């Protein structure tokens, strides 16, 4: 070799390697010559422990030949990888041309020197001869330069690598199995927790949905009433106790404190004020009673007039029906015969006009107003007009009696809205088929007064359909 950077010739079965030359001992700074024997450097304490921890088989890049010199000697590396570096913390030894000892021999030599590590007996390579001691470095250097170096072929480590792969795969498989078992256990535990949570949620929902009986509800209501009463009594007792404590403290102090009593003049003034207020309220009550009495009288008078008019109306209706059935021009003759005369003819004429108007409305709508009276609402103290009506078509046997109550109700915009309440009468005497055909007209409902035309249309339609259904069935 002419240069350290050149590689030797190799064939297809050999591995390139690099040979490092020896360094002259005289080139050292201290000028000390190498002496054969053990190194004066203390052995590393961390190395045996590192060997014990590293129990995996060696890799391919560890198959190198390294020679160790004394403390200040150089090192020659021969092997597959030129970048292999000797481990730190161990003494170096001079290299020889003999093959490097195997790991087993190295471990054996270490165990002989320190007595801590046991040599391996199942190494894949044969142990190499021990390293020879060097007496004269100049002579060895001359021999190395003159004679060609015999480099041993690199040792195949396929068996060790395969063994290492098998060992790693087995450990990885065990670890994976352990992780799978742990995952299955955690999943099962999670499923158990979820099922337990669902059971508890279902039980809680059942408890919330448990309905109370009427007796239990009454008991709870009574308990709430008693609780509120007890709380009020406790507050009253506490207030009276505090007042009594204040009075006792004032009486115990004697002359230092004075009690503030209400004087006679102040008591009389307060009594007179209360009497004036009571008298004012009594006067307001008397005025209200008077107004109520006047309204009652007016209502009674109007009710009498309405009843009288209703009787006349009923008689006129019966007479008009009889005349209409006898001759077509009966109404004209009746109107001529009923024309009033005399000093009170104006009043009677107005009454006849109202009667004729009612008759016209009844003939147009086939709805007879049998009664009309005013009632006072209990909650709002307002007047409510109640109309008793009868819908009796002339060509039908079906009729329906009902009442319409007109009243005012507050709307969404705080404005009063006129409404009408519909209430059917004598529905218990009707047949179930007739009630089914009437549909919503068989029950009570309310609507706005401006929708009376819609109500009338629905009434006509429902009664006509019911009549047709009964005729078809017969």
UniProtKB/TrEMBL annotation:
UniProt GO cellular component terms: chromosome, centromeric core domain; mitotic spindle; monopolin complex; nucleolus
Q: Name one GO biological process term.
A: meiotic sister chromatid segregation
InterPro entries linked to this entry: Csm1/Pcs1, Csm1/Pcs1_C_sf
Task: Name the Gene Ontology molecular function terms of this record.
Answer: microtubule site clamp
Regions of biased composition (Low complexity) lie at 33-47
Ranges of biased composition (kind: Basic residues) = 105-119
Q: Which top-level group of life is the source organism from?
A: Eukaryota
Q: Where in this protein does the record put region Disordered?
A: 1-178, 318-348
**Which PANTHER family does the record associate with it?**
MONOPOLIN COMPLEX SUBUNIT CSM1
* Protein name (database record): Monopolin complex subunit Csm1/Pcs1 C-terminal domain-containing protein
What is the scientific name of the source organism?
Sanghuangporus baumii
